[in-house]
Amino acid sequence: MMSTGTFQVDFEHLIRLLAENLYSDPHVAIRELIQNASDSCVRRIAQQALFKPAIHVRIEPNQRLLIVEDNGTGMARDDVVRYLATIGASQTRQVKFSTADQNAAQMLIGQFGIGFLSTFVIGQQVTVDTLAEGSEQAVLWRSQGSADYSLELGTRQTIGTTVTIELEPAFYNLLDESTLRSTIICYADFIQFPVYLGDDARPINRMNGPWHLDGSEHEYIDYVQHRFGAVPLAVEPIAIKQHNAECSGVLAIMPSSAALKIHPRKLDVFQRRMYVCEDMQLLPAWATFVCGIIDAPLLELVASREGFMIERPNYRALREALADAVRSFLIRLAQREPATFLQVVKQHNSGIKQAAVNDNQFFAAVADLLTFESDLGPITLTRYLERIPVRGAGERTIFYVLNDLPPSAQQRAIVGARGVPVLHVNLIEEKFLKKYCAARHGVSFQPLTAGIAELLEAETDPQWRKLEQHCEQLGMHVYAMRFEPSNLAALAMRASDYKREQVVDSLLKGSGSLLNFVQSVGRKRSDDYVLCLNTLNPLIQQLRDGQPSDQRWATVIRALWGYALLSSGIELTPELGEAVQHAQMSLLELALTQG
C-alpha cells in the first residue's frame, strides 16, 4: 500500500545552514545590502526620473550596530512578507522581467532571492524599517534568523529602507571604519549610485570604471592604483564582444614589489557592476605577471553570486579571448613601447620567458626582443648571434652558463679570446634557448662546460701525435689543440660531457636533486678528464721538442695537469687532489734541484 508524506522543515536551522554555508566570505553581506539598496533606487528612478539616489552606511560601535539605508522605492507590508520572509523570492527578479524600461532592467543586480540570508551570517538580529511610495505608514520587520519574525509599525518618515544589523561578536571588526571602508570599495566600487560612509561628504565608491567613461590611459592607471594599491608598470584597456565572450575592463602588469602582495593572475570580476569574486583561472596559466579588473555580463553565476559556473561555454570562451588579449598586450608593449617592455622584462624576467616558452604565438612575437644577461651586459639573441664565429655550413652556437654554475677561469679565458659572449641564464631561460634554437636553422646551444671544445682546433702535425702518445704512457689522456689565448698552456675537460637537459627534466619532474648532481660533478676517476695542451703556447712547443725520457719532462707534464685541474673549477676527488699535490711537490723539487 502506497502512502505519501510531506517534508518537515526546521526553518531555524535551515536559514542558518543556508546563510553560513552559501557564502565563503561573510563580508559578502555588505555587498548584498548595498546591492539591494541599489536595486531599490533603480526601481524608483524608473518611476521618477528626477530622483537623486543615495546609499548611506553607518556604524554605531557602542550598540554594535551596522546600518545600511537608501532612499529607493521602499516596501509595503505585502512586499515585506513576500520578499523578506520567503526564501528564493526576488523582488528584483520580478521587476527585471516585467519592466518595460530595459535600461532600468539592465541596472538591476539581484536575481536569486537569497542574498538577504547573508545578513544572518554576521548578525544575531536584523531589523528592516521601510516606507513605500504611496504608503501612509512604515513597516518594521525583525528576525533573529529563526522560523519566526515580527511585523509592526515602523518609524521611517521618508520613502526608502533602513536595514539595521546587530552584529555577532565574531564580526565586530566591521565596526572598524577602515575595515568597513575597504570592504565597501571591494564590493561596491561600481554601484552607480553614491555610497557614503558615516558623515563623509564624498562617496567612497568610484561608481564608474574608466571603461565606463572612455577614460584616458592616466585614468586607467589611477584606477588600478586605487584598486590594487600600487602604480602599474603598464595597463591595457580591453573590450571583448564575441558570440560567447564579452567583457570590458583593464589588464595591468604591476611592479614586482607589488606583485608579491597580489595573487598571480588575479582578476577582480564584476557583473553588471556587481563585484563577484577574485578569479585566478580566467587568465592564461602562463600569465603569472598579469592582473586586472573586468566586468563580464555573460558569465553564469553560482547561487551565492561569489563565483561563476566555470564549465559553461561562456566561461571557456572568455578565457580563450582573455588569452588573446594578454598576448596582444605584451606584443604591443614589445613593439610600440620598448622602454616599458624592457622594464617589465627586468622585473618579471622569468614570468615573461616562461610565457614565451608556453605560448607559441607570444614566443614568435618576442623571441628576438627579449634580452639575456651576458659578459657584455644585456643582449638579445639576434645581437648575440652576430658576434659569434660561424662554423661549417653557417652553424652558430650559443654558449651559456647557469647562474648557479659560473664558468671556470680557463673557460672564460678561451671564450674571451675568441670574442664570444657567454649568456648567464636560469632554468627557464635554458628552456627558452632550447625552443629558440629548435625554431632556427643552423643555431644550437651549449652549456659552456660542454661546448668549450667547439672553440678548440685539433692539430694534425704528426709531431703532436707523438707528444700525445708519450703522455698516455704516463697514464694521462692528452690532446694537442690550438686555441686562444696563447698564454693559456693547458686546460682540463671532461671526456664525455654530462647531459644537462636530462638534469633539468629530472629536476622539474621532482625525481632528482640539482644540488646533489652538481656536487657529484668531478667526483670521478682521473681518466674521465682529458688534458688539452695549447700548441700556440711556447712552453708546450718546448715540451713537443723535448725528451720524454727526461724526468723533468714528465714532471712538467704532471704539473700542467694539476694546474689545468685546479683552473677548471671542478671539485677534486681525493685521488685527483693527491695527484695535483704530488705534481706540485715534484715541480718544487725540480726547481730546487735546478737551483
From TrEMBL:
Keyword NADP: no
Family: Belongs to the heat shock protein 90 family.
Species whose genome carries this gene: Herpetosiphon geysericola
Binding site for ATP: 32, 36, 70, 75, 111-116, 161, 305
One Pfam assignment: HATPase_c_3
Protein name: Molecular chaperone Hsp90
Cited InterPro entries: HATPase_C_sf, Hsp90_fam, Hsp90_N, Ribosomal_Su5_D2-typ_SF
PANTHER family to which the protein is assigned, alphabetical: HEAT SHOCK PROTEIN 90 FAMILY MEMBER
UniProt-recorded Gene Ontology molecular function terms: ATP binding; ATP hydrolysis activity; ATP-dependent protein folding chaperone; unfolded protein binding
Keywords, in A-Z order: ATP-binding, Chaperone, Nucleotide-binding
Gene3D superfamilies per record: 3.30.230.80, Histidine kinase-like ATPase, C-terminal domain
